[in-house]
Amino acid sequence: MRTLIALVAAALLSVPGARAAGTGGAVDVAVAANFIAAARAVAAGFERAGGDRVRLSFGSTGNLYAQIRNGAPFAVFLSADARRPRLLEAAGLAVPGTRFTYALGRLVLWSADPGLIRGSGAVLRSGRFRHLAIADPRTAPYGSAARAVLERLGLWRRMRPRLVIGENIAQAFQFVASGNAELGFVALSELPSAHGPHPGSRWRVPQRLYPPIRQQAVLLRRAADDPAARAFLAYLRGPAARRAIRAHGYGLPAPARGGPGRG
Prior knowledge:
With about 260 residues, the chain is of the alpha/beta class. It is built from ten helices and ten strands.
């Protein structure tokens, strides 16, 4: 009888979204700021599917990484890059073999002014603006990508006096939305509608101008034996979460053999 119960429990944990009986509590997830709306949608879907409650904490990838290094009690880290999860794995703070790419970020030059950006990045050379918002390149992968674009275009030094730097990509978006900067590099997922009409003007930056933004998830060491955290990561790799992620303006890694969403 005990063997049968153990087998049933194992089968439940292998199903994305299922939770172990009696675990209760919640899954604490550190989430990169660009992924706020998508993370809320994924967490809600996980809970509807029978998973434990998910508590989301948002911040720049660099700041969340520092908090984890200093003992912050997160179970899962949804980073906006691949570098920090790799570093946590190397430092023994993440569970080996649990790291995977859950989304591919897309960078956009955006202005709330419908006439400022005319389908290309030419406005950057025009001088028709005073301030350009970007996320902090030192801590935010989208900020690092924005710097890479400006360097590739030969504009980094010229733009530096005009930069308004946000702690994370969400703050950079707010600088533009509030009018504190006439335009800025933001995540496609931050725009009011990623795929349809929305206020303002934009230039979807060609991906050849910046390194791929591979957003990776990893199970943290303190949650190595937590079935609810593992179930959340399994759900994140599954079809329902992938649909939500795509709907919020992200690209998706190709499903690898042996399960969707690895890479």
